[in-house]
Amino acid sequence: MKLNSNQKLQKKHLLFFHFSLAQIQKMSDCLNMDSKERAEAIREGNRAFNEGNIRKARDLFIKAEYKDGLIRLGDHFMYEKKMPLLAYGYYKKAGYQKRIDEIFQRMIWAFSQWIGADKFKVQPIDPAAEVPSTPSFPDASEFQIHPLLKQTALDILKKRGIQI
Question: What does the domain layout of the chain look like in residue ranges?
Answer without folding.
Answer: 13-95, 96-164
